[in-house]
Amino acid sequence: MTLVTPELNKDTYTGFKQKANEGYNIILLEGSSLANIGNITQMIFTVRHLDLRQLFNDLVKKLRESSSFDRFRDELSRSISEWEKDALNREKTVFFGLKSYEAMKMAGRNIVGTSEILSNIRKDRNFKHYIKILGGEDLTSYIKDGLLSERLACLITTPYEDLFCRVNSGDFKARGQRLIGAVEELYE
């Protein structure tokens, strides 16, 4: 059972903690926490049911093991923040690959430099949220890793900056369809 409230209070915590200790699987969330979880699942492309299930199991455990209301709120916040960071880290190459490809399309050319890609990406609201959570260590390497790992572009190295040549969507779709077909065969 999940209870979402605008703000948790001590009485709600005490009553539901007792039920959790009786064996009920209860998740207590503030509305803002649920909104954060929803934003992350919407922003990333490959969130798995298992990822959410692990988060929810962890939140049930936090309620059962908590020793005080204040400690529970701290642990709840920490667990959700760690889950967000882990989910975004797992998705980093896909996210940066697709956002960089989108930025290349916005440029209107097949060959685009890293600086122009970065300039276009910085305008994206999801990018800003992503960087806020993960930190912006080396954005140019994120762009390079994303485009090359996801095979969305080819690298052209110059003395001044890396340039990327976009892979056309037909090639990308064909590769994706072959991958889907191969996975489906495994389940037959």
Give your account of this protein's structure.
The protein has helices at 10-21, 31-43, 49-65, 69-107, 114-121, 125-134, 139-149, 169-187; strands spanning 2-5, 27-30, 111-113, 153-157, 162-166. With 188 residues, it is mainly alpha-helical. It has 2 domains: 2-87, Restriction Endonuclease; 92-187, Orthogonal Bundle (Arc Repressor Mutant, subunit A), CATH 1.10.10. The radius of gyration is 21 Å and the shape is elongated. It contains 8 helices and 5 strands, in the order E-H-E-H-H-H-E-H-H-H-E-E-H. Helix 3 runs antiparallel to helix 4 and helix 4 (69-107) packs across helix 7.
The biggest beta sheet, please? Answer: 3 strands, antiparallel
In round numbers, the mean pLDDT is: 86
CATH fold assignment of the largest domain:
Arc Repressor Mutant, subunit A
How much helix is in the residues?
Answer: 55-70%
Report the top-level CATH class of the largest domain: Mainly Alpha
Number of strands: 5
**How many separate domains?**
2
Radius of gyration: 21 Å
Shape: elongated
* Widest sheet, order of strands: 3-5-4
Instruction: Report the span from N to C terminus.
Output: 35 Å
- Tell me what the CATH architecture of the largest domain is: Orthogonal Bundle
β-strand amount: 5-15%
What is the helix/strand order? EHEHHHEHHHEEH
Low-confidence runs of at least 5 consecutive residues:
none
Helix/strand structural class:
mainly alpha
| Total of helices | 8
